[in-house]
Specification:
heterodimer, A: 80 residues, mainly alpha, 32% helix, extended, disordered N terminus, B: mainly alpha, 82% helix, elongated
């Protein structure tokens, strides 16, 4: 498959490599990244909700689906 | 699409995006965890022996879509987070004037430009909905890069001094307020308590 607009070369990071002085090539999974950051900051990473925009959509269901609307958060910021 | 390509995307695009976000904020946003959970659910269906090949392929495509979405979301969340920090500077006149390594005008001009750049990235993504939303990835990266550079204009030592000075001024005002109140109360007591001639 050739996905449109997607090159297969490893994407460089914008902040991570510069901030921590490492090469992203050495990290294959999110677990590798998390372990490295935890070692750097000296504590376990916590799962947090950013921005307080945890919009929950019911989509017609009785039970709420967990769906965080990051686009809405982004749009509110660019239009602020 | 085959499953190797989905995981190749995971390694080449998602992991760098995730490292930028988590490496900057020092925590894991729950939004990322949820999207990864959704990705995993679809991939598990790809390996479900009860499904036919068409349904397996549909699930694989959905897994890829979730992975693309969460990759873009990493940069959107990261930018919103950096933008909040920049907004604190924008709203604080003393930090704006004294706490930066660049002029106030330069900061405000660049801050304004960032919003425009972010709008362009969002516009690019919206224009490619259903086609190739990943095309906007580089634009989102550019927004984050420039925002991060602007954050670098903050002089942390100067800002610390400004905050200390502000604390000192408000403490001084508080103490002066108490002294004035005590003196006023005492004088009032003298006038009201003195016997009439």
């Amino acid at each position: 498959m050739q996905t449109v607009g997607y090159t297969k070369t490893r994407s460089k990071t914008v902040i991570f490599e510069e901030k921590y002085g490492v090469d992203i090539e050495k990290f294959s999974t999110t677990s590798d990244v998390e372990k490295f950051i935890e070692d750097k900051i000296g504590r376990e990473l916590r799962v947090i909700e950013l921005g307080g925009h945890g919009v929950v959509s019911t989509r017609g269901n009785i039970f709420k689906l967990r769906d965080y609307d990051i686009n809405r958060m982004f749009d509110e910021t660019i239009n602020s | 699409m085959d499953v190797e390509e989905v995981f190749e995307f995971y390694r080449t695009e998602f992991v760098p995006a995730y490292s930028d976000l988590v490496g900057y904020i020092g925590d894991k946003p729950c939004q990322m965890v949820i999207e990864l959970e959704n990705t995993f659910a679809h991939i598990s269906q790809y390996f479900n022996p009860e499904l036919d090949i068409q349904d397996k392929d549909k699930n694989l495509a959905k897994a890829y879509d979730h992975l693309v979405r969460v990759t873009l979301d990493c940069y959107k969340l990261l930018w919103v987070n950096i933008h909040e920090e920049l907004e604190v500077i924008e709203k604080d006149e003393s930090i704006r004037k004294l706490g930066l390594n660049i002029s106030e005008t330069e900061f405000l001009t660049k801050f304004q430009k960032l919003r425009k750049l972010a709008q362009e990235a969002r516009g690019m993504e919206m224009a490619s909905v259903g086609l190739a939303p990943i095309e906007s990835l580089d634009k989102y990266k550019e927004v984050v890069k420039e925002s991060y550079e602007l954050i670098g204009a903050m002089d942390k030592n100067k800002i610390q001094e400004i905050k200390s000075l502000k604390r000192f001024v408000s403490t001084k005002e508080f103490i002066v307020g108490i002294i004035v109140g005590l003196i006023s109360g005492y004088l009032l007591h003298l006038f009201t308590a003195s016997p009439a001639p």
